[in-house]
Specification:
Blueprint (H helix, E strand, L loop, with lengths): L5 H10 L5 E3 L5 E4 L1 H7 L12 H11 L10
Antiparallel strand pairs: 1-2
Length: about 70
């Protein structure tokens, strides 16, 4: 049986309709698929291994993907 390469795995992840993302124990980005990037309108420079999830959260707030501090809490 042939071993999957990282490129093979990425191709598989990118064919799914669901957004997939994984972070390491310290909150650093490990991998993601194209659907995750598309849903949140991330740019190529936003996503890289080690990018902390709080930085992605800051991008989400600036781009209007999430709302914080409104009258509903």
């Amino acid at each position: 049986m042939t071993q999957l390469t990282q490129l093979d795995l990425q191709k598989i992840l990118d064919t799914t309709e669901e957004a997939i993302v994984a972070y390491d124990k310290d909150g650093g980005l490990m991998f993601w698929n194209q659907r995750f990037k598309d849903i949140y309108h991330y740019k190529d420079e936003d996503l890289f291994p080690g990018q902390h999830f709080t930085k992605l959260g800051e991008i989400d707030v600036r781009s209007g993907n999430v709302a914080i501090g409104d009258e509903y809490g």
